[in-house]
UniProtKB/TrEMBL annotation:
It catalyses: (2R,3S)-3-isopropylmalate + NAD(+) = 4-methyl-2-oxopentanoate + CO2 + NADH. This is 3-isopropylmalate dehydrogenase. SMART domains: Iso_dh. Binds 1 Mg(2+) or Mn(2+) ion per subunit. It comes from the Bacteria. It comes from Parvularcula marina. Homodimer.
Length: 344
């Protein structure tokens, strides 16, 4: 069997962490007798520099033909203030591939409990399911010198199609789902809540509760272990997942899978950005990218066995104390990657 993966390294630390993830994927596939074909394409700031377009047609065509897409990160100060932004490339690819469900697991790894900024995060294991192609990031935008606006719109169908997989994930775990919204203020959130309640009728084995996003931001740093699966709209999920990742010890640890309709290619990326403050130094934590590659094997190649193999190797390297700077250690990207490769 051949796996066809498109790699979009992007900007800043993107190429550093995707390189690590490629090395790990290659090793695992080789060990399993799987042929892995990888092709590299442009996205983000580097794509603007080379083509003027943050998502060149050629990149999109390659992605549409692949089994999965591994992305590093886009953006950086070089492109801030420009009329075309690297982040537009990321939003466009999510929209073009129809990637409406973004799965962001967050765990406190064994041995890293002390790195959490909160005292009761040990054993944390939650999944944030974030809607990825609707809401305020995709609404009509108006930008004037004195007034600007961003419209947040959701249809019931957009809510249903992301809430349903969240129920599935909750059903396969502990039967507990928390839907996060701002229904005390926003009409789009009231539609979200009503729709989640309607979908709940198909999942009698799952207990659905609701939380307002401001309170949820607090719960994540006071008693995160009371939660298991969260489902929420695009912007709330963006913000809460960075927060949850910080609670787990570092944003460098957090992976994600963005999925659309069955049979279409998913996109796998760490949740962090291009980290311009450390780019080019070879010190970025590649764990989030490597764990995203594991999610590609799980969701894009139906190889749960290989995904688990990578996850176990990452956990073991971290437990052994091979830690990058963001985790309080002095290992560089290459050293942690080697430690993971040794454990495969
Ligand atoms: N998916 C994407 O491509 C994303 C892109 N961005 C873009 O990235 C650029 C920088 O954004 P920031 O707000 O600084 O967020 P960021 O996530 O890039 O960095 C925030 C902080 O976390 C650290 N960090 C992030 N990833 C790390 C890793 N793997 N290892 C060690 N430390 C890590 C950075 O050094 C920085 O101190 C912006 O242009 C932004 O628009 C931001 C978020 C997501
Ligand atoms: C740069 C944004 C478009 C994306 C983002 O922050 C994210 O997906 O986490
Ligand atoms: Mg984000």
């Amino acid at each position: 069997m051949t796996l066809n993966l498109v790699v979009l390294p992007g900007d800043g630390i993107g190429p550093e962490v995707t390189k690590a993830a490629e090395d790990v994927l290659s090793a695992v596939c080789k060990g399993a007798g799987l042929e892995l074909k990888m092709s590299h394409h442009l996205i983000g700031g580097i794509a603007i520099d080379e083509t003027g377009n943050p998502l060149p047609e050629e990149t999109l065509a390659a992605c549409a033909d692949a089994q999965g897409v591994l992305l590093g990160a886009v953006g950086g100060p070089k492109w801030d203030g420009g009329s075309v932004r690297p982040e537009q490339g990321l939003l466009r690819i999510r929209e073009a591939l129809g990637l409406f469900t973004n799965i962001r697991p967050v765990r406190v790894f064994e041995g890293l409990e002390h790195l959490s900024p909160i005292k009761n995060a040990a054993g944390l294991d939650i999944v944030i399911v974030r809607e990825l192609t609707g809401g305020i990031y995709f609404g009509e935008r108006q930008e004037g010198d004195e007034v600007a606006s961003d419209l947040c719109t959701y249809s019931a169908e957009e809510v249903r199609r992301v809430v349903a997989p969240a129920f599935e994930i909750a059903k396969a775990r502990n039967g507990k789902l928390t839907s996060v919204d701002k229904a005390n203020v926003l009409a789009s959130s009231r539609l979200w809540r009503r729709t989640a309640e309607a979908v709940a009728k198909d999942y009698p084995e799952v207990t659905l509760s609701h939380a307002l996003v401001d309170a949820m931001a607090m719960h994540l740093v006071t008693h995160p272990n009371d939660f298991d699966v969260l489902v929420t709209e695009n912007m709330f999920g963006d913000i809460l997942s960075d927060e949850a990742a910080a609670v787990s010890g570092s944003i460098g640890l957090a992976a994600s899978a963005s999925l659309g309709a069955p049979g279409t290619p998913g996109l796998y990326e760490p949740i962090h950005g291009s980290a311009p403050d450390i780019a080019g130094q070879g010190v970025a934590n590649p764990s989030g990218a490597i764990l995203s590659a594991a999610m590609f094997l799980r969701f894009g190649a139906a190889r749960e066995d290989l995904a688990s193999q990578i996850e176990a190797a990452v956990e073991s390297a971290l437990k052994a104390g091979v830690l990058t700077r963001d985790l309080g250690g002095d290992a560089n990207t290459e050293e942690i990657t080697s430690a993971i490769l040794e454990r495969l």
